[in-house]
Design goal:
The complex is a heterodimer of chains A (294) and B (444). Chain A is mainly α and 294 residues long. Chain A contains 14 helices and 2 strands, in the order H-E-E-H-H-H-H-H-H-H-H-H-H-H-H-H. The chains are: A mainly alpha (294), B alpha/beta (444).
Chain lengths: 294, 444
């Protein structure tokens, strides 16, 4: 079992990357595991006391943790579906314009250039009853303006803010996938008298299936772990009504000083992500097998 | 060619080193201050004075370090817990001393400090009887009101009758308009309701008040002077949590009554300091309980052209226990991990002297000074006279509000009280949850 010179060279070249991963990922992960199993505060960060799985029990029994999970799940699913739906529609309908005038793509991409925390601050201003343009014009035209950020409306306001910022990302992916479909395929379908709807439904969308799955996945992950813009706009919300899982972890860690519980919650979040990703990989493998068999 | 490049590199390095060294060599004490406001401006001015003193050694010169206000205390906590020596002196606040005390060292400011600030103000920087910092700025609340609106109300009999009618309907008692300096909380609430369009369509402004009801710890500090004037405290003498009290119930219910009646903007559950200022400067608000630091903005014709000239301030209204005004101090204390403790202590001692306090105040800071000291700067800073007067007469600190769990107590209250105001929890549920959390936090 002697390794070839190429293998040795490969290992040598990989060594810096492995060292980087060990230093920057393994060490924090190890500290995370120790803290998750410890009774630890800011005063005892260097001398944590191991308490087993107690922190996990406390977190799992905390109704706020489940409320935060539910918020993140709803937020992640809804924003991913809406962003991808809108992004797909825009990619298809604007394709002729964007293909002809490339600069319009830059214009559509603009919201993505703003840092999410800045978006939160920006909408605090935009939606303010006395300083914001939106309530001003609504009051001017209709005599009243809704309370965008009260406990009943904050969730939907946050969804709209997230969708406005990240639909361009989904649009970009779909635009690239859409223009990659060879023109000959569409021409051949048209010669066979396929309608535009049929071309879209039977040819274009199936060919964009992988991109749609990836876009939904990325947008769901981003929505699920949302922090910056929600924190900037509403914080945890009245009574914790806009507390995402990330905000729950942040609040427990920094505000509550419950480091063990906060880290345990983050470990649970990591494990849940792992299960979802593993499940998605298994599902994909099964679908591939079925397709091959067919 | 290689030799030439090496020489060039060495030359550039030497140039950079000579440019950087004077700054490093002359600044041995690093102070981490509160960024971005009058506190930063004042501290810069005071440090300039200190560094220019003939007896300030080069090794004692002070360099300032500022980072963003957002998450300041979280970052500071992480730095202190990690044993960072990137700064020798750091910011502390009354409500966070207990949390940071394990990572800081007490300082002896000398006997003159009490003559400059007075004992109660020095106590805002004490934890377990030890002095942890120099009180550089004091924060409390003013009741801001529109003089023009109140004067018009007081001069109009028909308006007075309408006022009494509204008070009877919403508060269950007939009240007559009063001078704001004589207000109790019911008078304030009646005034707020009278000046609310949703309650009184003839009101010249849209809302009678603007309440800061966001789930944010600082908003609890603004709110708690109301229950405090009814006798509220966090704990009794035995340490038992007493938040589920008649006093807290009265305060919480009054806020909810005003919110439900539309006397404060609909989005008040997302309002904090800047939103309140923006609402006030719009000219559509009649009264606001707000931090003293806002006075500079709200009473300045350049920043509040629509209302500055008609804006006046009094201490918060009274309750059965009299007038109460939350106070907390911002100050500077010594990092336990500092590598320049002697120089740092010398600067802190100077900062606690009369000359330093006057220089700090003159440059825009808000120190609470003893009466004979503040008299020396009253012509330049008349607001500081009122600050000292209110702090001395009405200032209070809740039991446990300097403990290690104080910040978390405010957080817990913010969460539970806003849940009640938003209608997500009943008052009983919110107070029971607050009691549970506070008991847990304050027993540690």
């Amino acid at each position: 079992m002697h390794s070839t010179p190429q293998q040795r060279e490969g290992r040598l070249l990989l060594a810096p990357l492995v060292a980087f991963l060990i230093v920057f990922l393994s060490f924090p992960a190890l500290v995370d595991i120790v803290y998750a199993l410890s009774d630890v505060t800011f005063q005892t960060m260097r001398a944590p006391q191991i308490v087993g799985f107690r922190n996990f029990g406390v977190v799992l029994a905390d109704p706020e943790f489940w409320a935060a999970c539910w918020f993140s799940l709803r937020f992640g699913v809804l924003t991913a579906i809406i962003e991808c739906g809108l992004g797909l529609a825009l990619a298809i309908f604007l394709s002729p314009i964007v293909s002809r005038h490339g600069w319009t793509l830059a214009l559509i991409m603009l919201p993505m250039m703003v840092a999410p925390s800045m978006v939160g601050l920006m909408y605090r201003l935009v939606l303010h009853e006395f300083a914001g343009p939106l309530p001003h014009y609504l009051t001017l035209w209709f005599g009243t303006s809704p309370a965008f950020l009260d406990a009943n409306n904050a969730f939907w306001t946050l969804v709209v803010v997230e969708v406005l910022q990240w639909t361009p990302f989904a649009f970009l992916l779909f635009h690239v996938a859409y223009i990659s479909i060879p023109a000959e395929i569409r021409e051949a379908a048209a010669m066979d008298r396929a309608t535009a709807w049929k071309i879209l439904w039977r040819i274009e969308l199936p060919m964009m299936k992988a991109t749609i799955a990836i876009a939904l996945g990325i947008r769901f992950i981003d929505g699920f772990r949302v922090f910056d813009n929600v924190f900037g706009l509403t914080g945890a919300g009245a009574g914790g009504s806009t507390m995402s899982l990330s905000i729950y972890i942040y609040q427990s860690f920094f505000k509550g000083g419950q480091i063990g519980q906060a880290v345990a919650a983050s470990v649970l979040m990591f494990l849940a992500s792992l299960v979802v990703l593993y499940g998605a990989a298994v599902l994909k493998a099964q679908l591939d097998r079925r397709r091959m068999a067919a | 060619m290689t030799t030439f490049r090496s020489l060039m590199a060495a030359g550039v390095a030497a140039l950079l080193t000579t440019a950087a060294l004077p700054g490093l060599a002359s600044a041995e004490v690093t102070v981490l201050g509160w960024p971005g406001g009058s506190e930063e401006t004042a501290l810069r001015a005071a440090v300039e004075v200190y560094n220019a003193l003939p007896n300030t050694a080069d090794t004692d010169k002070v360099e300032l370090l500022f980072f963003n206000r957002d998450g300041f205390y979280d970052k500071l906590q992480a730095d202190l817990a990690a044993g960072s020596d990137a700064f020798d002196i750091n910011l502390i606040a009354t409500y966070s001393i207990g949390r940071y005390a394990p990572f800081m060292e007490p300082v002896d400011l000398g006997t003159d400090a009490e003559k400059v600030f007075g004992k109660p103000i020095l106590e805002t920087m004490q934890f377990e009887g030890k002095q942890y910092g120099v009180p550089t700025d004091l924060s409390l609340h003013f009741m801001y009101y529109r003089k023009d609106l109140i004067d018009a109300l007081m001069a109009d009999d028909a308006a007075k009758a309408r006022y009494a009618e509204i008070a009877k309907k919403y508060l269950g008692k007939e009240l007559a308009p009063k001078d704001p300096d004589q207000w109790n909380w019911d008078d304030w609430a009646a005034t707020a309701l009278y000046f609310t369009k949703a309650v009184n369509p003839d009101s010249p402004v849209r809302y009678g008040t603007v309440l800061q009801m966001k789930n944010l710890l600082f908003n609890m500090m603004v709110f708690q002077s109301l229950p405090r004037s009814y006798g509220a405290d966090w704990t009794d003498a035995s340490g038992k949590v007493t938040v589920d009290s008649k006093a807290y119930r009265t305060g919480l219910e009054l806020y909810k009554k005003l919110y439900d009646a539309g006397a404060t903007p609909k989005d008040s559950l997302s309002y904090e300091y800047p939103e309140t200022n923006a609402a006030w400067t719009s000219g559509q608000i009649a009264t606001a309980l707000q931090w003293n630091a806002a006075a500079g903005e709200l009473m300045n014709p350049d920043t509040a052209p629509a209302v500055a000239e008609d804006t006046a301030v009094v201490a918060p209204p009274s309750g059965p226990e009299g007038r109460k005004d939350h106070i907390h101090g911002l100050g500077l204390g010594l990092n336990k991990s500092s590598k320049h403790k002697e120089g740092a202590v010398r600067f802190l001692k100077w900062l606690a002297s009369e000359n330093a306090a006057l220089a700090y105040a003159k440059a825009g800071g808000s120190p609470a000074l003893a009466p004979d000291v503040v008299a020396k700067i009253a012509a330049d800073r008349p607001d500081l006279v009122k600050l000292g007067e209110f702090a001395g007469a009405y200032g209070y600190v809740m039991n446990g509000a300097t403990s290690a769990g104080a910040l978390s107590v405010y957080e817990a209250q913010a969460k539970e009280f806003t849940a009640y105001w938003a209608g997500q929890k009943s008052l009983d549920e919110a107070l029971a949850a607050a009691t549970r959390t506070m008991t847990d936090l304050l027993k540690k």
